[in-house]
């Protein structure tokens, strides 16, 4: 059955309940991908716009809400809420988010798979949007951050998982990079936005730092409502999702996945079957890699404005605005790497290159005295950890099969990222200002461990691929499937 004959037949009224069987038949046919190249590009562009851009915009506001503590801190939050070196309140407020964020990831993805991403993702974005601008004490701020962790637990791994269900393995890093690139602009331009918002100081009796939370929270709520009408569900459900794709186009998307890795359709859920994926060592290797990367990325997101102000002597305005250029550079490198890695079908070498760049950048930032050299180090360190995030998402997605394993691995990967956030917020302590040497040492060690873990995975994957070439046991239960190095 070709796509065009499928389209002709389904115009007669094929029920949604029979779509899966028809698509399975189509996906097993070598003629399944018979849309013209131009038609295929048009379908993929529509998917990109509706899926990647929408999720990236939500990730932007997610990171903005999660990391605006640094901007609010230099705008007066610590003083007004009584945060100081003795109570270590800023570290506590930064830290508590990550505990619930890590704990609720795995169950959240099960819930999203059952409820559907459109309802699930839009609802949690709407719910986390309000409250922070009106908190009277730092203890109240810490409590809200705990709730924020629960709500955001399903967002990032949910987006990563949803993207992986729509694209073949070697089209994925470009999409992960675009998704992450849109989101990471929050870290780059969030400081500039925060500086503008804090100029509202005194309006309605609220401090400038409170207006940062109030306005950004309002934007979050509006995006949460709008996203309900834009987010698309899983590809096999897309004909039922506001007619985003017709049945033939949906069949084409699913057929691409079936031809690539044969896991487009979800198998029945069982708790035992879901948790058994934790017995695979590479699942935890990916989690460790992401943990090491986010140790660096969260450290930079939370503490860069403070380091620029206290460690390098810039004013509040300059400290907030100087966070933007390194993120612009990271976006350029990230986009180029994604194109190159997808073209060459390589993942591990990209990750190692970025980690080595991070080692150089953090060394310049932490162990030199010239501000120009240190700021160049900021560029290298920021590029390193931000470019490695989409690279690792794709590295993981390319090397697992099965809907529930993909969901479990997405949750553990991002859960590792949450632990990296805990590490990043605790190793940079107020008492270590202005040089923050323990934090610098920890992030240097994290990048070194990335190199070691990727080397070990590459050795494992290379040996497994050689066994497949020799006619040995299939990888991930699929004959012909090979690991992406």
From TrEMBL:
Source species, domain of life: Eukaryota
An example molecular function term from Gene Ontology annotations: transmembrane transporter activity
Chain segments annotated as transmembrane: 47-64, 89-112, 119-138, 144-166, 178-197, 209-231, 283-304, 324-341, 348-367, 373-395, 407-430, 442-459
Record key words, sorted: Membrane, Transmembrane, Transmembrane helix, Transport
Pfam families recorded: MFS_1 (PF07690)
Keyword Transport assigned: yes
Domain Major facilitator superfamily (MFS) profile: 51-466
Tagged with keyword DNA-binding: no
Any Gene Ontology CC annotation: membrane
Matches recorded under PROSITE patterns: MFS
Membrane topology value: Multi-pass membrane protein
Predominant place of localization: membrane
Subcellular location(s) per record: Membrane
PANTHER family named in the record: MAJOR FACILITATOR SUPERFAMILY (MFS) PROFILE DOMAIN-CONTAINING PROTEIN-RELATED, PERMEASE-RELATED
Protein name as annotated: Transporter
């Amino acid at each position: 059955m070709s796509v065009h004959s499928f389209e002709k037949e389904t115009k007669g009224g094929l029920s949604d309940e029979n779509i899966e069987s028809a698509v399975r038949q189509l996906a097993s046919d070598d003629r399944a991908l018979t849309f013209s190249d131009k038609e295929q590009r048009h379908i993929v562009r529509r998917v990109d716009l509706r899926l990647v851009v929408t999720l990236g915009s939500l990730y932007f506001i997610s990171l903005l809400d999660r990391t605006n503590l640094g901007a609010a801190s230099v705008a007066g939050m610590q003083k007004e809420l009584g945060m100081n070196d003795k109570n270590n309140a800023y570290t506590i407020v930064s830290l508590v988010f990550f505990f619930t964020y890590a704990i609720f990831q795995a169950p959240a993805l099960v819930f999203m798979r059952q409820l559907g991403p459109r309802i699930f993702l839009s609802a949690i974005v709407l719910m986390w949007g309000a409250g922070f601008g009106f908190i009277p004490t730092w203890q109240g701020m810490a409590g809200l951050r705990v709730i924020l962790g629960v709500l955001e637990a399903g967002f990032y791994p949910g987006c990563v998982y949803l993207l992986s269900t729509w694209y073949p393995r070697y089209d994925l890093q470009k999409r992960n990079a675009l998704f992450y690139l849109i989101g990471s602009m929050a870290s780059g331009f969030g400081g500039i936005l925060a500086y503008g918002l804090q100029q509202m100081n005194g309006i309605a009796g609220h401090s400038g730092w409170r207006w940062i939370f109030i306005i950004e929270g309002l934007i979050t709520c509006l995006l949460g409502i709008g996203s309900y009408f834009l987010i698309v569900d899983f590809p096999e459900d897309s004909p039922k999702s506001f007619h985003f794709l017709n049945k033939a186009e949906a069949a084409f998307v699913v057929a691409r996945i079936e031809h690539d890795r044969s896991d487009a359709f979800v198998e029945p859920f069982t708790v035992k079957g879901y948790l058994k994926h934790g017995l695979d060592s590479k699942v935890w290797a990916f989690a460790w890699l992401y943990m090491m990367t986010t140790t660096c990325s969260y450290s930079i997101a939370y503490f860069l404005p403070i380091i620029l102000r206290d460690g390098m002597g810039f004013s509040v305005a300059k400290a907030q605005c100087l966070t933007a250029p390194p993120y612009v550079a990271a976006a350029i490198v990230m986009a180029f790497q994604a194109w190159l890695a997808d073209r060459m079908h390589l993942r591990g070498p990209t990750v190692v290159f970025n980690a080595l760049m991070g080692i150089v950048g953090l060394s310049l930032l932490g162990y030199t005295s010239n501000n120009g050299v240190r700021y160049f180090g900021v560029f290298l360190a920021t590029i390193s950890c931000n470019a490695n995030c989409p690279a690792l998402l794709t590295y993981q997605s390319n090397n697992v099969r099965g809907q529930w394993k993909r969901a479990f691995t997405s949750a553990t990967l991002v859960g590792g990222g949450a632990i990296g956030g805990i590490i990043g917020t605790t190793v940079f302590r107020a008492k270590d200002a202005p040089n923050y040497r323990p934090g610098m040492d920890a992030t240097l060690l994290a990048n070194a461990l990335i190199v070691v873990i990727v080397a070990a995975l590459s050795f494992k994957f290379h040996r497994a691929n050689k066994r497949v070439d020799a006619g040995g046991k299939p990888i991930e239960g699929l004959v012909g499937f090979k690991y992406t190095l």
